Amino acid sequence: MSTYDLGSLPVHRVGYGAMQLPGPGVMGPPRDRDEALAVLRRAVELGVDHVDTSQFYGPDVANELIHDALHPYPEDLVLVSKVGARRDAEGAWLPAQRPEELRRGVEDNLRTLDVERLGAVNLRLMDAGHDVPADQLVPLEDQLAEMAALRDEGKIAGVGLSNVTLEQVQAAVGATEVVCVQNPFSLVDQHDLDVLRFCAGLGIAYVPFFPLGSAFPGMPKVSEDPRVLAVAERRGVTPAQVGLAWLLALEENVLLIPGTSRVAHLEENLAVRDVELTEADLADLAG
Question: For the residues 211-237, what does the mean pLDDT come to?
Fold first, then answer.
């Protein structure tokens, strides 16, 4: 399996995202703790060296599972987290955008994962158009300055961005080194193609979330797209594998972090490493 650099850290292009490990709504303990631990251990056994997580998954739950399953960590395992949000007791997603909150988020991740440095941390910005308290409207340059300070202190190896526009990425790379961008992108939702191409031109890793389409009801899903179903049937693979293989073929800077709470589904996702779409496949998927 090919690799791509996440800043100074080479990782395999198919990793694992821990968001699905906690309970429903990314809150509380997992449906099956033993299975969740088995998923993490199996991922590493199969060569995963890039695990994406966050303190607010659970909250605390995903990180604690990662620690219990994998600590002491393999030397080549790159743990990536994100900051910029928090959860309340009801599970609502609340902003935590102030510099001191970003720092606290990084330090909480370090504590629960029991590491001295994270491979990268994504600054997750707020969705445009949402009501945001005035004290959470922080200039991007102030947020980046805090993230850069955390990097300079050795607490994170690289600064990433999540949920960002092209203009925000351009502003960020003018202010500090950016090692990755994490935005929604898939075969059925290509609105972020300009950001992906911009990152590719600069050698910045691009990590799509919702790589198989939206997880929300009523929104397009890759596995239901007729083009994907036709290619999957012809090639004898699953629709999910087609959707993931399409992303890998799009640009070499794409890193995948498909998530699941089941070992069988994990193995299916990782098997995309053996799926190479043909020119005919790609043409049909573009149609």
Answer: 91
